[in-house]
Amino acid sequence: QPPKIWPKREEGRGGGCNFHMACSIRIRSMVIRAVVVLMLLVMCLGVHGADFFKEKNFDKHGNPGKGNANKKDAHPIKTVCVIPAFMDKLKDGMQLFYAYQAEEASQWFEDKCYNSTQGELSEDCGCFFWAFRAHSTVNKTDLARIALDSALEIAPFDPKLLSIKGEMLAEKDGEFLKAAETFKEAAKYEDKNGEDYEKNIMRHYYNSATAYVQLARAEDAIEMYQKALETERGQEKWSIYNSMGLLLYDLERNDEAIEAFEQALEIETDHTAVLRNLAGVYLKLGNVTAAIPLLRISASREPDSFEAWYYLGSAYQRNEQHAFAALALENATKLAPLHTLAHKMAGESMAYAEDYRGAVRHFQAAHRLLKNHSLYGGCDVLSGLGSVYMEVHEYRKAYDAFFGALQRCDCGLAPNPEECEQDPVSLLDLGLAELALGRVRDANSSLSASLEVSTAQGGGLAEAAVGTAQAALRLCMW
């Protein structure tokens, strides 16, 4: 063979050897020096280096151990727990599970992979996963926890396991903060190339938001909802926009709440709950005109919904459309006959609409419900009932109602008597009923007491009415 021709270095470009032999000698010299320096360095480290490696003992999988090489090696860290290719050895237990023999399946997995130190499949993450499913099915909660935690020791970054852990923290333990953080971890490790990536990551963020809602951490929840909406699947979910709108409403970010509810309605047209929520924002802002059409659609689409009729009746009442309010609230009380406030509001609207018989019926229903719940409060119900009786000239019944109102709102029965103030209007109503019954002396006493209470409270709420009543009283006495 022809001799190899080595390229020559040009002068002025770093120098170096011009011949192969000279270069080889220099290289060998440099290698020898490097070896000597390395040996000296190792000798200097001495015992300290040995102790370092001893303490940082690594297992056969490359995971740091606990400083004892005789202990069982740590599990290899996996990112996916259940690998289909490795499931053949679990088929007996899985067949029991799918054959609805959950108790037998639970026992099979308990025998095979009870915990991280015993069981022939104790290093198989899939075994722990299926053990968790089997134990959960037969309500062996403690064993299910052991199985799930053991699976997470082997595959701590598996998003499916993290999601299950988050659900357990939230639903079983009430550890909502840990649950929220765990769902965020699940989203972090979700496989972007996975077939269900968009669906899964949206669900992780949504669950995290739900956990934050339980903690009343609205800002954190909104952040998670927004992340969910950034996913392709999240953009299709009206429920996310609706949930975010409710939080924005609570934070009094009303314009953003309206926008969120409107986006929900773009996805789910005329959804009754969203319509009511949007109407609620308008009512809060005093825009009753905008709220009523939304609530009418809600009631027509969902005629069996108490909320639909109740909120519609409330809106009509605020707009002083009492005849329409009475009809809506009548429907509401039929759907929820034990709802005290609905009966009270129905009585008020019917009284304004001059349906006195209906008003009496609803005020009496509200009074019966109040008596079953407490001894104190609800005097406005009896006052309303008394006012209706006054309109139809049943003065004795009116007197009984007004007297009952004074009794139910006696400050001696109040939960915090020191914070209680007597209502001068109740005394005025009683005085007028007494005057109508011809009980002049009693009327004078009640009207004078009303004026004294009003003056002592620094208000003039009843003064004009008291003056008129006392003038009528003097006329009667004359």
Task: Please work out how many helical segments DSSP would assign.
Answer: 22
The number of distinct β-strands equals 0
CATH superfamily of one domain: Tetratricopeptide repeat domain
Helix content: 55-70%
> Low-confidence spans: pLDDT under 50, at least 5 residues?
1-25, 44-73
Essential attributes:
single chain; 478 residues; Serine Threonine Protein Phosphatase 5, Tetratricopeptide repeat; 22 helices; 68% helix; elongated
Task: List strands and helices in order, with pairings.
Blueprint: H1 20-55, H2 91-98, H3 102-113, H4 125-137, H5 141-154, H6 159-171, H7 176-188, H8 197-214, H9 218-229, H10 238-250, H11 254-267, H12 272-284, H13 288-301, H14 306-318, H15 322-335, H16 340-352, H17 356-373, H18 379-391, H19 395-408, H20 424-436, H21 440-456, H22 463-477
Outline the structure in words.
Helices cover 68% and strands 0% of the residues. It is built from 22 helices and no strands. It is mostly helical and 478 residues long. Mean pLDDT is 81; it is low at 1-25 and 44-73. Helix 6 (159-171) packs parallel to helix 8 (197-214) and helix 15 packs antiparallel against helix 16. It has helices at 20-55, 91-98, 102-113, 125-137, 141-154, 159-171, 176-188, 197-214, 218-229, 238-250, 254-267, 272-284, 288-301, 306-318, 322-335, 340-352, 356-373, 379-391, 395-408, 424-436, 440-456, 463-477. The chain has a domain at 374-478: Alpha Horseshoe (Serine Threonine Protein Phosphatase 5, Tetratricopeptide repeat).
